[in-house]
Amino acid sequence: MELSGLEIKVLKCLDTTEKSVDDIANKLGLEYFQVLRTVGFLKLKGLVDIREEEVTRIKLTELGKKYLEIGLPEKRLLELLDQKKEINVRDLQQYFDKSEIQTAIGVLKKKGAIKIENGVIKLLKKVPLPEQELLEKIARGGVELGEVKDLLKRKKIIEIVKQKRFFVKLTEKGLEIKKQLRDENVIVKYDKRVFNERLWEKYPFKEYEINIPVNPARAGKKHPYLRFLDDIRRELISMGFQEMEDYSMIISHFWNFEALFVPQDHPSGEMSFTDIFVLEGELKDFDEKLYEGVKRQHMRVFGKWDEKLPRIPMLISHVTAISARTLQKVKIPGRYFLIEKVFRHDTIDKTHFIEFSQLEGIVLDEGLSFRDLLGILKELITNIVGAEDVKFYPAYFPFTEPSVEAYAKHPKLGWIEVGGAGIFREELLEPFGINIPVIAWGLGIDRLAMISLGIDDIRDLHSRNLYKLMK
Q1: Which of 262, 305, 313, 432 would disulfide-bridge 257, Cβ 3.0–4.6 Å?
Q2: Taking the domain 62-149, which CATH number applies?
């Protein structure tokens, strides 16, 4: 049987009486866990028996270690009074923390060592302080729980911890192997020294024990949600889509609403509407010529325009705002997409969050129809994301006509809404100088990820729980 040099050392230290792993480590001058791992290997080879025992230990806290070094408050006060004989209570703040004064006075008064008259502490007699000696005993180890009951009443000086101890002894097989041991080394690491000094000519190599169980290797890897987003990006690029470039977390009200032909008196555009996060100040992130074109369109159709509203900064609430920006410089025909975060004031639950990602897409070409839009959505949701089924319902959005809402089948939650889509209205496209069909959609990519990853709570997409992530 091949044994490593460390296994041989530990075996030579053992006999048929139990020894603790702590004692073995101390005797051999090795790390505790190094010895524990070695005896684990020896047990797998049938050479030792291991007994596990839970023990209660008393340890000094950081405050306890401090008092071990400088003395408990009552010890320091007794030493101070031994020098000065008396001291004003107010003057104790020069020597003690506020939290220590009351403790020191209380302990010494109870022991009859001091008295207080007119705010002055006077020493009556010196008394023994077994608590200080107890701290020293705890530091050395071997203190029983019953000895520290009084000290436990004082906060943050000592703590009780439960630990596992391991005891090892040789089996009959181990005893036989120990008798056969020779003083020889076994080569474990195949390093430069082995080859430079030709050690293989003197010592045998350690054999691999393929039956020893080892912990699985858990190498770092990308979060499952981020992998999902990367997969979607790759699929869309393979379908001929180009990623939009003008995303901004903070945009003007103009891009989020007016440029998308949302009336300024529409509920989703009013500043009192609680769905959006509004910022202070003013933001002009749009071209003046386009601004005038959008304004004329609103005045022609709605007869209403507020000059201040478009300049209000806000957190982007839907990525369709970036589609509007992209319309300024699109190629025809063209396919564009974007996966980015949006922000809405919402009640957090299994399918809602105040920040989430959207998959936005637009396609521009002659002769596009509503049927083309539904075909792309079905391909995305069922074939790429992997949902069981998808269905569409008629809907209303200020910037598309006709419009639909898309629902996908979640394996646990059933049918959930995953986004909206439609054909951009001519009134929206006219200020951009576009006169061909533009189909558009905005999908809740987080909800689609829930379907693909088998998650039934949207908050788990951002989990840092390693136990969940390792499943």
Answers
A1: 262
A2: 1.10.10
